[in-house]
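Quarterly update from the structural biology core.
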Amino acid sequence: MLNKFIHSQSSRLAATCHGVASNADCQETRSVRFSLAIEIGQFGSLDEAIQQSVAYVREQRFEQQCDGEQFVAMALHVDVRDEQEALVLRGIVLGQGMDWCMPARTRKEARSISMQIEQLSEEYVRQDFLVERVTAQRLGSDPAERITERLAYLEGSLVSPAWRDSVTRALRQHLRQQPIRS
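Predicted structure, tokenized:
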């Protein structure tokens, strides 16, 4: 209990936006995407990290920081990590919004999610070899890409156990503060 209290009160948290980019100017590498991570900032509280991450995504700063003249970039998810680099929270980027991954509530649920991740990882390897990338892009449906998105979401549920309760409370509070859109 004391460990959870210490985590919720005094830790510095780092938020990082992860995404992909490609070089729009180079004909040979235009279709080649590379991973890109940009730090959003260091924060003293989980609430502050959530608010600043949402603002960062809403304002599309990831795309702007990637030099729009030369690169085309797309944010995929935001990770919030503590000083020990443990995952505290993950948010999946959906356009200008975020879908926060709720943490696994119990060890049993975390084990189940870990098993799903293992199975999906094996499926990803099979799909990556089976699907020709050009064909998948032309059809607009890449099974390997869908598996990667699902893996990112599942992995986001496996937060450090010391943070589970704090994250759940912070997300509930954050969701209550969001305006209802019609």
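The beta strands are 13-23, 34-43, 71-81, 87-94, 97-100.
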